[in-house]
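User: Predict the complex.
Assistant: Input components as received:
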Amino acid sequence: GNSVTQMEGPVTLSEEAFLTINCTYTATGYPSLFWYVQYPGEGLQLLLKATKADDKGSNKGFEATYRKETTSFHLEKGSVQVSDSAVYFCALAGSSYKLIFGSGTRLLVRP
Amino acid sequence: DVKVTQSSRYLVKRTGEKVFLECVQDMDHENMFWYRQDPGLGLRLIYFSYDVKMKEKGDIPEGYSVSREKKERFSLILESASTNQTSMYLCASSISRTRGNQPQHFGDGTRLSIL
């Protein structure tokens, strides 16, 4: 069945550092891929998405490229801010209604 | 933008009470979902509804029921609350059951404590 694997956190970075959060997936067919962000005490917000191979999703300085050959969708940001501290979830949507979530990666950015 | 609104951010109830969590979405989405989120366990799907009065069990439906009388509103019901139902509850919606590959849009969550 479909599954998503994320790197375990927490990831601790200094402000302005480069961020990578790894996400790999297993799926049949041609799923869509998403990154969600959850700030403390809040629900999940859709951060970016990609619907087919080689698509690049981007938003708020974050990017992720749908790599079918490596079954990956790594999240990157060139220069993180303290306000980026949150939990990030990678997710996959196939042909059914269900979203398959990774376990989440906590990011802590220090000033 | 899609707006999913959960009626309460924080809720405290007692063991044995019947608890209602309400969720409303404003984008005419067909699908609505209830999840619970617990540390170390991630998001787990409780129930899903793809149309008015239609529902399907998710991964952990025991101890819960749902109601969808109107398209925009999806209620989660704890028939007799227990302490192990203390959790963060998240409601979500997506466009259509017949359209795959769609994102879900989430509310802000309800942090429920059962004493």
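The mean pLDDT of chain A is 94.
Let me know if you want any component modeled separately.
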